[in-house]
Design the sequence.
């Protein structure tokens, strides 16, 4: 039997592995179907379409994630992403703008908090 | 024994290559969508993957691995790890789009071999049952075997009875329609195909029908593109059908501006310069709103080849259900073989377009350039291929003065010569009016 030569680079392998992981988590009930769909759309955007602007936005979002003060904003970002059809370029542009604003607002809150903490220490 | 048999009848690697090609290349998707069927795959999972890719392709969604997983979640497919692993394997091992025909050929051959094997088994069984006479059995087997060897899936042989029945139904339909015309429509013929945009041409042709190749010749600067867009307006805006317009020499902006003028009836020059009154501006806006909701798809493509046309037409037929394709114009297409004479190249292009029209069941219009003396290079050969050949030529004042027939029309300035009409009368002239400033064409008005 002829063997197929794997011509894809490592990124392609990671892409399928990541997609499989998302799918498996959905099957196990650890992700809701709409969450899984959103994540699959995101990896298509970042890996297949190589949308680096969107990737940077997501990186920025995850860098300072997890502070109780900004928990609400982060939930809004996630809900916005899930309810958007990222395959439609118009919707994606709109959501990129909205999320950018939400991240800036979060940065402002976290910076103020940092300043307050620094002031308290002084 | 079983393993050897499977290796002969089944080629899973080729099936995987076809599917991975379809996942990774649009060219491969177009080719495979048009030439292979779900049942040609042996592996049930491959059949499902093929069907999913085709469904996504028809919706103009790029079928990535993630997209397939989303679809499978929605439809509750591929729920075990083995299936997902097979799907991932297909996605990771792609082939280049240009190799797709080779792998498609392999999959189709195995599919035919399986059908042949099943045929042999069935007839072996029939021989053992011994219930049919030998001549009857052989005749039946021969017919089935002919279909298997000589014909593609979408071809069929017309039996005498089948053809007679088809002819009768067609005449009956026309007979009833003719009666209806006389009784209800006061003699105006309803169309068999798409409207031409001219009442007089509609009467002569009964419209552009699926499978028709229409050739329109005109000299440079004498309305080829205006004729094409006039046809497009009749089909997409007035008749609400989808059409693909391939232009080899105009930019997107130029095409959009032409539409503005045609739909608003505001002079083209005014649109180009922007020297518009507010009333004209509002007319233009209204005109574009008609275009916006129409089925007009434009594909400006300066380096068009016959192969590329086939590929684009197949894609638009599958995804947008186009009923007509207009190629504006043939002379600007890329030459396939440098050492061919001009007429040979044109003949090849026209032949390809005729096959395309028949295979996709759409009307195809090709615009060609007439020589200064009104003749067409390679005209005889082109005429052989097409179903309708029209020439659009200007009418001079001298001609009007000398020709009584022309004087019956108030504003004739061009005529359409029906040089060939496979389904009706040819050798007749249709008088038209071409308003160059607004790029509008219509039937000439009688005095």
Sequence:
């Amino acid at each position: 039997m002829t063997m197929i030569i794997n011509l894809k680079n490592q990124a392609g392998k990671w892409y399928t592995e990541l997609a499989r992981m998302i799918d498996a988590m959905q099957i196990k009930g650890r992700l809701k179907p709409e969450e899984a769909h959103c994540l699959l759309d995101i990896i298509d955007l970042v890996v297949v379409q190589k949308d680096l602007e969107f990737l940077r936005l997501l990186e920025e979002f995850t860098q300072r994630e997890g502070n109780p003060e900004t928990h609400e904003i982060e939930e809004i970002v996630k809900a916005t992403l899930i309810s958007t059809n990222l395959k439609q370029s118009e919707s994606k542009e709109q959501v990129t703008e909205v999320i950018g604003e939400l991240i800036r607002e979060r940065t402002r809150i976290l910076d103020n908090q940092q300043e307050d903490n620094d002031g308290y220490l002084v | 024994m079983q393993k050897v048999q499977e290796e002969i009848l089944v080629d899973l690697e080729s099936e995987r290559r076809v599917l991975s090609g379809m996942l990774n290349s649009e060219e491969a998707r177009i080719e495979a969508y048009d030439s292979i069927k779900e049942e040609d795959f042996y592996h049930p999972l491959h059949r499902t993957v093929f069907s999913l890719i085709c469904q996504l392709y028809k919706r103009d969604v790029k079928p990535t691995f993630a997209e397939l997983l989303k679809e499978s979640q929605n439809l509750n497919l591929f729920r075990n790890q083995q299936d997902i692993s097979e799907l991932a394997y297909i996605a990771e091992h792609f082939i280049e789009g240009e190799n797709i025909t080779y792998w498609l050929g392999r999959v189709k051959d195995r599919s035919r071999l399986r059908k042949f094997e099943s045929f042999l088994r069935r007839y072996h069984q029939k021989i053992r049952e011994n219930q049919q006479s030998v001549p009857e059995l052989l005749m039946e087997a021969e017919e089935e075997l002919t279909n298997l060897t000589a014909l593609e899936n979408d071809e069929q042989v017309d039996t005498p009875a089948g053809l007679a029945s088809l002819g009768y139904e067609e005449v009956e339909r026309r007979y009833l329609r003719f009666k209806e015309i006389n009784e209800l429509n006061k003699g105006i013929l309803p169309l068999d195909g798409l409207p031409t945009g001219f009442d007089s041409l509609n009467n002569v042709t009964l419209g552009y029908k699926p499978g028709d190749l229409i050739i329109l010749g005109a000299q440079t600067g004498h309305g080829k593109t205006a004729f094409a867009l006039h046809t497009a307006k009749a089909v997409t805006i007035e008749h609400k059908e989808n059409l693909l317009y391939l232009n080899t020499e105009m930019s997107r902006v130029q095409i959009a501006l032409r539409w503005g003028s045609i739909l608003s009836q505001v002079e083209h020059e005014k649109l180009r310069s922007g020297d518009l009154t507010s009333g004209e501006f509002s007319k233009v806006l209204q005109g574009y709103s008609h275009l916006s909701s129409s089925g007009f798809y434009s594909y400006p493509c300066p380096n068009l080849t016959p192969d590329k046309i086939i590929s684009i037409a197949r894609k638009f037929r599958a995804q947008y259900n186009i009923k007509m394709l207009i190629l504006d114009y043939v002379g600007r297409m890329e030459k396939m073989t440098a050492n061919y004479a001009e007429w040979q190249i044109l003949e090849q292009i026209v032949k390809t377009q005729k096959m395309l029209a028949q295979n996709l069941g759409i009307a195809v219009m090709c615009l060609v350039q007439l020589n200064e003396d009104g003749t067409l290079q390679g005209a005889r050969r082109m005429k052989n291929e097409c179903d309708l050949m029209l020439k659009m030529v200007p009418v001079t004042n001298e001609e009007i003065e000398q020709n009584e027939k022309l004087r019956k029309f108030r504003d004739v300035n061009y005529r359409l010569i029906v040089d060939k009409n496979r389904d009706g009368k040819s050798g007749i002239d249709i008088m038209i009016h071409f308003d160059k400033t607004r790029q509008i064409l219509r039937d000439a008005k009688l005095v």
About this structure: Chain A touches chain B at residues 1-8, 12-13, 15-17, 19-20, 22-24, 26-27, 33, 36-37, 40-41, 43-44, 48, 87 (CB under 8 Å). Residues 1-7 of chain A have pLDDT under 50 and may be disordered.
